[in-house]
């Protein structure tokens, strides 16, 4: 546990952390709008609002994921929440924080499963047409299986919450 790191963040609100990293920030009735750092358009397509406990809610109207928006400015999903010492959090708060941090990994894992299922299906179709799989096809198929195993491991991580 990095207690020093946690303490360093205790007073920083998520908006104080994020807003200086964005360009074209304007204040709106409910929060802010800014240029989206992920897709780099000129319009203020990123909407930022503060929810309960100063938790930041982000939405890019062009469809960038929250993870991509934050990654573009060097932040993580956990930075949207007010950092408290974990010991002062309720179990529900802790679980919420961990789930939020896992969400991008779960999404990525689901995408992997989708892509790799496609690769397996192509191989199955090829075999059904009596076309033998060459070395490259077999390697691709083995890679697909390894990626599927990796993805299921990521998805199993929720059982630790
Ligand atoms: Zn965007």
Summarize the structure.
This protein has about 160 residues and is α+β, with helices and mostly antiparallel strands.
**Rg, nearest Å:** 21 Å
Count of β-strands: 4
Question: What can be said about the biggest beta sheet?
Answer: 4 strands, antiparallel
Assign the structural class, choosing from mainly alpha, mainly beta, alpha/beta, alpha+beta, or little secondary structure.
Answer: alpha+beta
Helix count from the secondary structure assignment: 5
Question: Percentage of helical residues?
Answer: 40-55%
End-to-end distance: 17 Å
Coarse morphology: elongated
Extract low-pLDDT stretches. 1-10
Say which molecules are bound, naming each kind only once: zinc ion
Would you give an account of this structure?
The chain has 161 residues and is α+β, with helices and mostly antiparallel strands. It has two domains: 3-87; 90-160. It is 49% helix and 10% strand. It is built from five helices and four strands, in the order H-H-E-E-E-E-H-H-H. The chain has helices spanning 3-9, 14-18, 66-72, 91-128, 135-156; strands at residues 26-27, 31-34, 46-50, 56-60. The protein has a four-stranded antiparallel beta sheet with strand order 1-2-3-4, with no helix packed on it. Strand 3 and strand 4 form a beta hairpin. Helix 4 packs antiparallel against helix 5. It is elongated. The structure holds zinc ion (ZN). Zinc ion (ZN) binds at residues 36, 38-39, 45, 60, 62, 64.
